Amino acid sequence: MRRDGRLSGILHVLLHMAQRDAPVTSEVLAKAMQTNPVVIRRILAGLREHGLVRSGKGHGGGWSLARDLSAITLLDVYAALGRPPLFAIGNRAAAPACLVEQAVNGALDRVLDDAEALLLARLGEITLATLSADFHARLASRGGVHRSESPDVA
């Protein structure tokens, strides 16, 4: 199963946005993420519906964070992305007739439910402020030089 990198990617975008004092255009963000601006707009529109970002049109327009970094958790972003599947493993059949497979499904369901609850709880504990602080610590350890993906994004 292919990995879903949207959460990682959009967290990357949000942290780039947080480094700016002004709104950032989809084109600039797309350049940093090496993707199409339409992809960025589509994802950010979903985050706008959840109150995480806002957009402005016209000269000086673009995308900006709608809340403080400390008020946005990784769980908030995950939920705004539509809660994509967390695990690539699962049951072979949802309602098997075989008693052996029913036992396997029961065990896997319990383990996966427990793992998902732990992961979601942890996502709820980490804020964008936490990620930003980590970025700034890494930046300081490099002497304050940030090698950005794009010269247009801080």
TrEMBL record:
SUPFAM superfamilies: Winged helix' DNA-binding domain. GO terms for molecular function: DNA-binding transcription factor activity. Signal peptide: none annotated. GO terms for cellular component: cytosol. PROSITE patterns: HTH_RRF2_2. This is Transcriptional regulator. It comes from Rhodoplanes elegans. The lineage of its organism: Bacteria, Pseudomonadati, Pseudomonadota, Alphaproteobacteria, Hyphomicrobiales.
